[in-house]
Fold this protein.
Amino acid sequence: MPKTTVTNIVLGIVLAVAGIILLAAPEASVRIVIVLLGAGAVVNGVYSILRVRPLSEDDQFKLAALIRGIVSIVIGLLACFLPLVLFSAAQTVVRVMLYLFGVYLIFSAIAEFFLVYKLHEVNVPAKSFAGEAVVSIIVAIILFMIPANFGLVIVRIFGIVMIVCGAVFALYSYRNRMYIIEPDSVSDEE
């Protein structure tokens, strides 16, 4: 089997296993998701400072990108380390971090829309930034719902969706794998 097919099958299985973990232990999974979101926020903040900030010469744009980047890094580091450092109060920390992340994502989306506006002024394509802002708002809404008991239902439903998607992706990749047929011999008959 080609390497990409094997990779796709493994990714499908990993996705399904992650869904099973979400289904079996939703509260612990939420902690893991917070740490992963924190790591993503740190990476996003560094990206915003190093790559997004230089896109425009406008001082307001540069300041907004810098502030957004610094806030992303700070919130991300808090999300990565608070659940680990304050393990005895993990439930409270997780709840606070969910709300903090939700608020951060809303403000981040507002800053992103401002950056998109500024990029349009200088004719720089910014569709991906607008898409990121919309996704941030959706994720923020989900994060606000998770601390309630209804939130664990959402996590479990998401786990079921991940199991189904992972299994379907792995099966699809297996069924549509490429066959490589190597001939026993090759002759030049002309």
